Amino acid sequence: MKKSMIALATLAMLGTSAAAYNPPAGGQNMLRLTSPFLLTDAKSAAGGALTEITPDSVVNNPAIAGFAQRSSLGLSGTMLFDSNDPSDTSLGGAFDLGLTIASRWCVPTFLVQGVFSEYEHMNLGNNIAFTAGYSKDITDNLSVGLSGNFGLLWGAGSDWTLSAALGTYYNAGEVGFLKNLRFGVALTNLGKMYTDTEAWGIDSSVTTHDDGTTTIDYADAWPALATLRIGAAAHFIDTDAFKLGLSVDVASPGFQNVVFDAGLQMRFFDIVKLSTAWEFDLQEYSKNEYKNLMPSVGLSFNILIKSKSETLKKHDWDQSEITTGAAWQRLYENVDAVSAGVILDLGLRDTQPPEIKMW
C-alpha cells in the first residue's frame, strides 16, 4: 500500500513537468467557494485557527476528520455576482452538502459540491463534484486520511476529473505558550485534472496567425496536478470566555507555484466566532488582472438544542449543536462571494476523561 502511494505521487509529479501552469483565476480553490466555513478557514491542513471538524474539512486534508467525536451534517450555499459591472446582472453560485459519520473504527465523509461561475475574471464554468473520504486516528495524537474525488464540468467546454488525496494530521497539544498546537500535511489532486476546457486561464492569450485565423490558449490542467499543502495552527489564548487562534499554510500547486494562506479566528464564550482568512498566490499576483488580496470575513453562532425523543436519547443525540455561519469575500476585484451555511453536530463533545472504577 505504501509503495503504491509513493509511485502514484511520483507519477503525478513527473506529469506536472510537461504541462504549463495556467489555471483559471480561482480554479485551484474553486471547491472552497461552496461554504462560509471553507471561505474563512484559510484552507488549513491543520484544522483551522480554532479547531473545527466539519464535513468540509475533507477538502483541505482528508485526515482532519479522524478525531471527530460526533457525526455531522452540513448544508451551505454561496451567491456570486459581479459588483463592478452594472451591465452584468447574471448570478453565479455554489453549494455543498456533506455528511461525516463518527465511529470507533473509522470516520467516513461524503460531500457533494457545485460551483457555477462564468465571469470574465473568474471563468470556472459549471462544476459538480463528489468526494468520499476515509480517516482514522492511529494514536491519541495522529490521524491519517484518504479521499477520492470525481467531478464534471460544462459551460466552458466539457470535461471530467478523477483524483485522490492523502493526508496526515498531528495534534501536539500544549507546547510552551501555544495551546492545541496542530500540524497537517496533504497531497491532493493525484489523478486526472480538467484538461479539455474552454475556460480562460490566468496566462491565456489569443494568437493571430498569418492566414487570419486565431488560436486561444485556454486554461490547462486545473486544479494543478499533485498539490502539496503543509499547515500549522495553534491557540494563543484559550479560556472559557475567549479563544484566539492562528493558522498558516504553504502550498505548491503542481510544484509550479507557491501559495501562502493565513487565518485568524476569535471565539467568545463558545457561542460566537469571528473569522478572517487571507491568501497570497504568487502566480496570480504576478498577473495584473488576477490579483486576489482581499481577505474573507465570517461570523458564526453555536446553538445548543435539546430533544425529549427517546430514539435520539438512545444514541446520545438528545442534546446537539447547530452552527450557523455567513461569510463574504471580494474576489479578483470584480466578483463578490456571499455565503451562508449550517452544520448540525449530533450529540455533545466528550470533555471528561474516562472514569475507572475498581470492584
What does this entry look like structurally?
The chain has 359 residues and is mainly beta. The chain is built from four helices and 16 strands. The chain has helices at residues 2-16, 36-39, 282-285, 310-314; strands at residues 72-82, 91-100, 107-119, 122-137, 142-154, 159-175, 178-192, 206-208, 214-216, 227-238, 242-252, 259-268, 272-281, 296-306, 319-331, 335-345. The chain has a 14-stranded antiparallel barrel. The longest helix is centred in the first third of the chain and has 15 residues, at 2-16.
List how many beta strands DSSP finds: 16
Q: Tell me about the largest β-sheet.
A: 14 strands, antiparallel, barrel
Our estimate of the beta-strand percent is over 45%
Task: Report the uncertain regions.
Answer: 1-18
Question: What form results from the Cα inertia axes?
Answer: elongated
Radius of gyration: 21 Å
In N-to-C order, the SSE pattern is HHEEEEEEEEEEEEEHEHEE
- Protein structure class: mainly beta
Multimeric state: single chain
Main sheet strand line-up: 1-2-3-4-5-6-7-10-11-12-13-14-15-16
Number of discrete helical segments: 4
Determine the N-to-C terminus distance.
Answer: 45 Å
Average pLDDT confidence is: 87
As a percent range, the share of helical residues equals under 10%
